[in-house]
Amino acid sequence: MSPAIELIAINKSFGAVHANKDVNLIVERGAIHGIVGENGAGKSTLMSILYGFYEADSGEIRVNGAPIRIRSSNDAIAAGIGMVHQHFMLVEPLTVVENVMLGAEGGAMLRAGEAKVRKELARLAQDYGLDIDADAIVGELSVGLQQRIEILKALYRGADILILDEPTAVLTPAEADALFELLRSLKEQGKTVILITHKLREIMAVTDRVSVMRRGEMVSTVETANTSPPELAEAMVGRRVLLRVEKTEKAPGAPVLEIRNLSVVDTRGVLRVADVSFTVHAGEIVGIAGVAGNGQSELLETIAGMRQPSVGSIRFEGRDIPSSRHNPHRMRELGLLHVPEDRLRTGLVPAFPAFESAILGFSHEPQLGPGPLLDHDRLVADLAKTMEQYDVRPPAPRLKTSNFSGGNQQKIVLAREIERNPKVLLVGQPTRGVDIGAIEFIHRRLIALRDAGVGILLVSVELDEIMHLSDRILTMCGARITGERRAAETNEQDLGLLMAGVTDEAA
Amino acid sequence: MSAPIQLPKWAETVLVPAISVAAAFLIAGLVVLSIGENPLTATRYLLQGSLGTGEGLGFTLFYATDFIFVGLAVAVAYHAGLFNIGGEGQATLAGLGIALALNNLAFLPGFLLIPVGILSAAAFGAAWAAVPGYLQAKRGSHIVITTIMFNWLASVLIVYLLVNVLREPQSMNPETPSFPETSHIPFMHEAFAWFGITIPSSQLNLTLVLALLSAYLVWLLIYRSRLGYAIRVVGSNPTAAVYAGISPARIIIIAMMLSGALAGGLAVNELMGYQHRLLLEFTSGYGFVGIAVALMGRAHPVGIILASLLFGILYQGGAELAFEQPNITRDMVVVIGGIIILFAGALDGLFRRLVAQLFTRQKLAGA
């Protein structure tokens, strides 16, 4: 039996960047095949070639043994290849049926197509346990369910080979487990799955074989059972990596950020943060653990001054911040800096050259240029220097922000905030979509900041990250703080219960 | 979905627009052919009339001056993510500002009166744009709708004022008395005459210099200043603006006021440079041409100057063409202009894609 997919000597360059160098890949039919590699290693490029977004400069693609040319996603779909993107391609106000039908309506009138979709959905639900309310509005569904619709879309179009790009980046641990369950049942039904991810834990949990890419080359393909996370990490980065950064015990200093009875109501009138109180001390990392959407984002934004609290007080270095002075600009001046959760929507301007994104929030600083003007040469020189310190690749300050990989974009944001000597740093999802090498780097920086006496408030949906970095951990559930633990005195099960809202009092 | 298109800068800024214009002329040629005229002759008249004579060139540059101002006006708003359709109304109100200032402050010497007139035009244009800006920023009323409504308001307001308030008592025409001589911006042929150089006389006046200076200042503002940075952040990523402590509402109002002030330049050129009185409909729809100019010039001042020249050629050459070949009416010239707008503005992506494919193919062949 010929393999589901064979890629032979694939080459692809973008200008001077050789994104794929003679890449060979064989994916066996009916297997779950993982592809790991750092950001910019060429995984996404390779999959884009397979899915017809790009055409390879040279090389051959064989599907089920037959060489084919894939020039558009239509060709890929015709060849039985389906893709689930990291960022969903769904129309939120439409129903599940309408979304699945989109692009495959089968005629000018919708009735016939709709009936067909309903029948197919029912069959898929039976075959794979992919149960979903066909008439639900997509925008009202959880992220995990939205992802199922993406998978349903691909299956509806007859996909035998399913590519998933970073599928768990947006999922809660429970949702991720459900996804893996689904992938296994797809495999049992003879489908082939290609899983692109950063997370070695997932590779180990669900794949049969794994391929590692580094700097555009395929460096190894092994049976998952014969490898280990440290081995994979080393292959990805090309050197030994610490999956857990060491940190020393340290007594925290004076309180720098005190939050008292803070409540936040959003523009739609929903209570997002309810009566939250806590303190961050100098030289301490306080982590907030919680499933995404339980008020952590709103809490960070409120402290940073992007939102106004409805009730409650914020004290910074012992002084109350009156609401008239509670805005992002003032908070920055005081020394409260903010690495936002969503770098592309909030922390950067994707359309700007990097050197302009690197002054977002600080464009008023007098040293950046004479009077009302900005000195571009200076901005470029400044960023070139920080890019070297933070190992941003490529070190090209004039390159458009959106052309950097996620990890490098995150480094640009971190550098911008850290280099301005914060007293308190708010950090949201510092390593979301960031590769292992960069994670180690970012964790080291954060711990160095803590050791230098900065108070850090860390919000992350990665429980591992929270547990590695924090000195103290708070859990949030349903807009409230449900518990507090010293990092040394807790474990995943304990935190998991608190995150699910099982509080100490209730227990 | 397809791969993102990355073109070299020269192809982006010169090649693609050039192909668009060439294609537009090709289609326009077919239109001319279909009414039984020779497109080559027509093109010759068009170029001859706009560039072939000193006088023609003067008129071309006069129109180009108008278009630079309104093009810049649209571009500044565009960088803040706003589509300012209200250039007509803002220029009309700027005209009112000029008339009020010049006819009431006639005692001032010329070197003061001219700047006062220009500033008054800018202030009135800015004020007229500030209201839709405020409504967008604070109430969320869509800027396209409000600026269109403000065009109508401006147009009826000026009719009312000219007929009932500002008209010279003895005159039957709805126009103000002439502005004082000292307030006239010198014609280009007069300015050249100071240095003993004779050039053919035309409507072209020194406002062109102001237009070019404005283009430079807009470039400096948008691409080099802190305010321009804030404007572009708001236009490109409003969430990031909030994060950065930039108030989108404040920036929207400022950008609209700057836009309105720039639209006022049209009134300066037409009224202080040429008509020397306020009259009805002096804006002649040029405010709308500004949208096409800004689109074609990709909202960049250099592009806007080039696009303004092109539209200047079309307007002046078109007038000559209609005169020389009566079969080709002024309306037909407007049709040709429309085709160019269609190709340069709306169908721009079509040629970008073609050019990009050519480039990738070439690179593949080279590799």
Automatic annotation (TrEMBL), chain A:
Gene Ontology MF terms in the entry: ATP binding; ATP hydrolysis activity
UniProt superkingdom: Bacteria
Major localisation: membrane
Domain ABC transporter: 5-240, 257-503
Signal peptide annotation: none
GO cellular component, one term: plasma membrane
Gene3D superfamilies, sorted: P-loop containing nucleotide triphosphate hydrolases (3.40.50.300)
Protein name per UniProt: ATP-binding cassette domain-containing protein
TrEMBL record, chain B:
InterPro entries: ABC_transp_permease
Subcellular location: Cell membrane
Keyword line: Cell membrane, Membrane, Transmembrane, Transmembrane helix
Name this polypeptide is given: ABC transporter permease
MF terms (GO), sorted A to Z: transmembrane transporter activity
Topology of the protein relative to the lipid bilayer: Multi-pass membrane protein
Entry's Gene Ontology cellular component terms: plasma membrane
Residue intervals passing through the bilayer: 12-36, 56-78, 113-131, 143-163, 204-222, 252-274, 286-313, 333-351
